[in-house]
Amino acid sequence: MIADRARLRIARRVERLAGYRLPDRAFHGTMLSTLCSGINFDAFDFAIREQILNFFNDFLRCSCRDSPLCGCPERKFAERVLELRENGLDHRQISAVLLDEYGIEIFPADILSFLEDSVHVLEAIADIARLKGQQELFRKTGEHIRLIER
């Protein structure tokens, strides 16, 4: 999944604040738990606090009992990448937006690979929808494929 490739640029700084070793992967369970544990984010400058706030608002807000280890952050991240692509950004621009908005570093090639895999999954869903006579689902998947491939 694409979330496994995402690295948090400020991981080492969060590690120093927490006082224990952390992985640099943005959606690793330990990193998510640490970010949600209430460490003092006032130690960061305004821009980094804004990125962390954006990260919380866009990926960590859910009502699941096991939050943030419920899988919702990873799904929301994948949805965000697809949303950015459907809005016309290419893989390089998506990488830049994720870095600017959330402090998440991800290689453009990883984004491109994820988008290609997503198209294959959508094509499979469209084929099954067509076979089952679910025209609305077939139409919607076709529209998403078109937006991703443009």
Task: Put the structure in a nutshell.
The protein is mainly α. Helix content is 65%, strand content 3%. The chain has one domain.
Q: Helicity range of the residues?
A: 55-70%
User: What is the CA-atom radius of gyration, in angstroms?
Assistant: 17 Å
Mean pLDDT: 93
The ordered string of helix (H) and strand (E) elements is: EHHHHHEHH
Tell me what the structure shows.
The protein is built from 7 helices and 2 strands. It is mainly alpha-helical and 150 residues long. It has one domain. It has a two-stranded antiparallel ribbon. The chain is elongated and about 55 Å long. The two termini are 22 Å apart. The mean pLDDT is 93.
SSE blueprint and pairings:
Layout: E1 7-8, H1 11-18, H2 29-36, H3 46-60, H4 72-86, H5 91-102, E2 104-105, H6 108-132, H7 135-149
Notable features of this structure?
7 helices; mainly alpha; 2 strands; two-stranded antiparallel sheet; 65% helix; elongated
